[in-house]
Amino acid sequence: MESSTEIFGIRAVIEAIDAGKSIDKVFVQKGLKGPLFQRLENQLRQHGISYSYVPVEKLNRLSHKNHQGVVARVSPVEFHALDTLVSSTLESGRVPLFVLLDQVSDVRNFGAIIRTAECTGVDGIIIGKSGGASINADTIKTSAGAVFKMPLCKVDHIKDAIYHLQASGIKVVAATEKTDKLVYDVSLKEPCAIVMGSEGRGITPSILKIADERIKLPILGDIDSLNVSVACGALLYEIVRQRL
User: Fold this and answer.
1) Alpha carbon distance 54, 62 (integer Å)
2) For labeling, which of 26, 27, 50, 101 is most exposed (least CB within 10 Å)?
3) Which domains, ranges and CATH numbers included, belong to the chain?
4) pLDDT of 86-102, one tens digit each?
5) What is the pTM of this model?
6) What is the pLDDT of residue 24?
């Protein structure tokens, strides 16, 4: 089974970026300085690659090699360009169905969503470059390998992706408890994209504001929310039911 690859060393990471590798995240040792590091930092910002400053002890756990203060995780999958994926889906004659994940951070939730999305005919999953879960061995295992079949798009900003979908005639539907409208009362037969929020905060207010529709699942017990992957599965299968 494939999993994310680690690249260590400042120059090696710079070369990976230059080669167009799909880098999930870069870990940089706190206090690192020098012209070569400055070049790396500029590239990370220019390409919108997520990075964080960490103690050297964390880097030593990530890699036992001479990491020179930098370790990068390279995604085991290639990401699709959003405009190309949307265009090809529209041209296919299928009724488009996309999922947008607004900072879903748990890798197992991410993997479970990918698995259900593949089973329900989703055309692609859209994630942001920062704040969300990476694709690692746990993601791959939880997805049961679906991560290698499901088209994934990584965008700078989820809001921009929403505007692009809307301009392409695709209705954007936000799953949120901040509505009285149940999913069963909304037609999802037309082209649509479902937005799922993060485990702790839900959908970002600015994203919720621009959605075309807000829907929720009924909660009949004492616990007031569902796990995000479970909720996503219930919503996707309601769309399948409506479209069959």
Assistant:
1) 11
2) 50
3) 5-74 (3.30.1330.30), 82-243 (3.40.1280.10)
4) 999 999 999 999 999 99
5) 0.84
6) 81
